[in-house]
C-alpha cells in the first residue's frame, strides 16, 4: 500500500561522492515545452542542462529555488547540442564542454555544480579528451563530482581510469534491462545508477503484470515501476520527470511502496 503521509525520503539515501542524497529524485527535463523545446505552456505550474529547452530547465530551476536550500543537490549534464527540435547531437569537444559548464553555472546561479554528467560519448572525439576537460574544470572548482551517461561497461571502466566517477545514467526500466552489467558494476563500486526513461516512455505502464500488481496493491502502474527500480539495487537513484504537480506527487509516493518477494519474482520475468 502507498503511505501518502511520507515524502520521497522514504526511499532511503545513497552517496554521491561526499554528498548524501535521497534515492528518489526529480528529473527536470519535462519542465520544458513539448519535445523538450522552448518554455512550458504554463510556467506557474512548475514548482537542467543546455539540451533541455535548450537551457529552459536550468533557468526554471534557478527561478523557482534560488537561493537554494543548504541540503539541495543539483545535477546537470553537458555534451549534447540541439540544432533543432528533433535533433540531439553529441558534442564532446573540450571547448564545447567548457562553454557548457560556464553556461550552466550562469543559468543555475552557482559557483560550483554538485554533479556534472557527460551526456554521451562523442564518436568524433576521444573519450579521454572529453573527460579530461571535465576533470580540469573539476580541479578549477567549477564541478564538485563527475558522472557519465549512456555508456557501456567498457566505457565505464575506461572513464574510471580517467576520473573519479560517482554516477552513471543509462536507460533502464522494467521493459529495458540492457544495462544490467553496468548496473552490477556500479553496485560493486558504490556508484549511483540513475535510470533514464524509468517508466520506459510509458511502456512499463502498459505491462499487464505491472497493472495487475498495481491493482492488487492499491497503487498506480507508475508507482509499481518506480518501486521495482528502488528494489532492484541499493545504488539505484530514479529521477522521474514530469511537468505536472499531480504526477510529481504520485511519483514521490512510490518511495513508500514495498513490493513483496512474490511481486518482485513476477516482475522479474516482465
Structure overview:
- The chain contains nine helices and nine strands.
- With 270 residues, it is α/β, with parallel strands linked by helices.
- The two termini are 21 Å apart.
- The relative contact order is 0.14.
The shape, in one word, is globular
Structural class estimated from helices and strands: alpha/beta
* Lateral strand order in the biggest sheet: 3-6-7-8-9
Helical coverage, percent range = 25-40%
Cα distance spanning the termini:
21 Å
Number of strands: 9
Largest sheet: 5 strands, parallel
Instruction: Give the low-confidence spans.
Output: 1-6, 30-38, 43-49
Q: Provide the succession of SSEs.
A: EEHEEEHEHEHEHEHHHH
Radius of gyration: 18 Å
Amino acid at each position: 500500500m502507498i503511505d501518502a503521509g511520507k515524502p520521497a525520503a522514504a526511499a532511503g539515501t545513497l552517496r554521491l561522492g561526499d554528498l548524501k542524497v535521497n534515492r528518489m529524485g526529480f528529473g527536470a527535463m519535462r519542465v520544458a515545452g513539448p519535445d523538450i523545446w522552448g518554455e512550458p505552456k504554463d510556467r506557474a505550474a512548475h514548482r537542467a542542462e543546455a539540451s533541455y529547452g535548450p537551457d529552459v530547465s536550468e533557468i526554471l530551476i534557478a527561478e523557482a529555488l534560488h537561493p537554494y536550500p543548504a541540503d539541495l543537490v543539483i545535477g546537470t549534464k553537458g555534451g549534447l547540442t540541439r540544432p533543432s527540435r528533433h535533433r540531439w547531437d553529441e558534442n564532446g569537444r573540450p571547448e564545447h564542454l567548457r562553454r557548457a559548464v560556464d553556461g550552466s553555472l550562469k543559468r543555475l546561479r552557482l559557483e560550483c555544480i554538485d554533479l556534472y554528467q557527460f551526456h554521451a560519448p562523442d564518436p568524433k572525439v576521444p573519450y579521454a579528451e572529453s573527460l579530461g576537460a571535465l576533470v580540469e574544470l573539476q580541479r578549477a572548482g567549477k564541478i564538485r563530482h563527475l558522472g557519465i551517461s549512456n555508456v557501456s561497461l567498457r566505457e565505464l571502466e575506461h572513464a574510471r581510469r580517467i576520473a573519479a566517477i560517482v554516477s552513471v545514467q543509462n536507460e533502464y526500466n522494467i521493459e529495458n534491462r540492457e544495462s544490467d552489467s553496468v548496473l552490477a558494476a556500479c553496485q560493486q563500486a558504490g556508484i549511483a545508477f540513475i535510470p533514464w526513461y524509468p517508466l520506459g516512455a510509458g511502456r512499463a505502464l502498459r505491462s499487464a503484470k505491472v497493472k495487475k500488481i498495481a491493482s492488487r496493491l492499491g497503487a498506480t502502474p507508475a508507482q509499481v515501476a518506480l518501486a521495482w527500480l528502488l528494489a532492484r539495487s541499493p545504488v539505484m537513484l530514479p529521477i522521474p520527470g514530469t511537468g505536472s504537480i499531480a504526477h510529481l506527487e504520485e511519483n514521490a509516493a512510490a518511495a513508500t511502496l514495498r513490493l513483496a518477494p512474490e511481486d518482485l519474482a513476477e516482475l522479474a520475468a516482465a
